[in-house]
Amino acid sequence: METVTTVNPAEQAGRQIYLSRSVWRCGAYSVTYSRRELLVGLFLFGLLCLSAVYATTVGKFPLSLSQVTDILGGVPEHRIQARVLFHIRLPRIATAIFAGCALGASGAVFQSVSRNVLGSPDIIGFTSGAATGALIQIVLFSSGTVAVALAAIGGGLATAVVVYLLSFKSGSVGYYRLILTGIGVGAVLSALNGLLLVKGNIDDALTANLWLSGSLHARNWTHALPVMVGVAVLLPLMKWLARPLMMIEMGDEMAKQLGIRIERVRLMMMLFAVILAALATGAAGPIAFIALAAPQLARRLRRSGHLPVFSAALMGGLLLLAADLLTQLIPLDLIIPIGRMTGIVGGIYLLWLLNSSRLFR
């Protein structure tokens, strides 16, 4: 077993970045890693765990950290508190963390595929497509949680197919064409979503309107489990394909010379990213700007050109959980849906990003 240091070149956004990597070897097997990326991932994971522990004590019903510890330890005296913890707090926390992880990883993939910081599923229309599928189930069929989640996946996939086909030209996908097409399709779907609200009866329209605001209120395990399973299954697959996708960022011609099947890798990663974004939308409703901000913040912490799949996922979970805590701790008893809160904060971040990014100078 030995550790050696190598230097691998990687190209990001038209410039050459040299990343110091380490190789861990054990017999015939070896794994490359970056110490800084590993430390950033551990830092984000630790901060996420601390935030989750604190979130168990936040809410209308008083619940102290010692009571949470007793409940998890099996102390039988706190029956009411146990019901609050297991049926209200933990499902809400799990939904926030895993929906944020799904959005963060999805945003990282789409920003890599489009080679643009604006390439996130909520901006290029995939979240709107998932919302359309979910609204059809809510407004027209009054369906339950599982049906809404499945409809969100179907709507997101259908939107992805349309955007991909409209962006495909001369044997490849145009990167700016992908973003502009997605924005156009998303605008059409947003108008369709408004028509669906008018079509339904008043009760279903109110439910759909609350869902469109993005909310973690009254979430249970049926909301959390689909996105939890999706993240657990798809995140390792996305990490496995992250290196070929990073090679594609260098240019299609160079990737072809390296023997990478460009469209196959791109399609698989887009499929995984769309499913994750749709699962997050089905679980918590349309959540704005998490998919846009999380990958960029992760890249700045890592100072790396590598695709930040796990780091972006952890950052997304941390951002969404922090936003949920902020909505619960806000003074004057104001009730702000989580989607509106992320929209306010994310809009400010987007203005800063547009002002500071070299892509728009």
TrEMBL record:
The gene is fepG. GO terms for molecular function: transmembrane transporter activity. It is a multi-pass membrane protein. One of its GO terms (cellular component) is plasma membrane. It is found in: Cell membrane. Its main location: membrane. PANTHER family: FERRIC ENTEROBACTIN TRANSPORT SYSTEM PERMEASE PROTEIN, FERRIC ENTEROBACTIN TRANSPORT SYSTEM PERMEASE PROTEIN FEPG. One of its GO terms (biological process) is siderophore-iron import into cell. This is Ferric enterobactin transport system permease protein FepG. InterPro entries: ABC_BtuC-like, ABC_transptr_permease_BtuC. The chain crosses the membrane at residues 38-56, 93-111, 123-140, 146-166, 178-198, 218-238, 267-294, 334-354. Belongs to the binding-protein-dependent transport system permease family. FecCD subfamily. Pfam families: FecCD. Keywords: Cell membrane, Membrane, Transmembrane, Transmembrane helix, Transport.
